[in-house]
Amino acid sequence: MAKAATSSKLGALLHVKSIGPELATVLAKEVFYRCFASRRHVAAYVGLTPSPFASGRRSREQGITKAGNARARKALIELAWLWVRNQPDSALAVWFRSRVGSATGRVRRIAIVALARKLLILLWRYVETGVLPADVVVKP
Question: Which helix (H) or strand (E) holds 30?
Fold first, then answer.
């Protein structure tokens, strides 16, 4: 039963442009084989949640937790770069370009991690419900 569910999720991921067999396999077998209660649980499992620091009057962000599945996190960041290149008209790619603009370096790397988190949530909703946003391109 679990193998059938994982293979159906793998097949669903393979229909989306930008996702090849390697990335689909990593995501299906490392992340989407489990049931998650919410988008926050999915992001926490992969380690893409913010890590706040609060001490007295001082409060700041320390980046992402990196406490989750490292293999899946690396695959998602790679997928985020592929998404920006291969799905330029999607809402996520447009959001990334509007946030980053012509910036390079650190700003771009921080924004791509945020895009990876948004992409993870989009794909989680897709494999659970079967519904993709209208602006996402599927393979013919």
Answer: helix 21-30
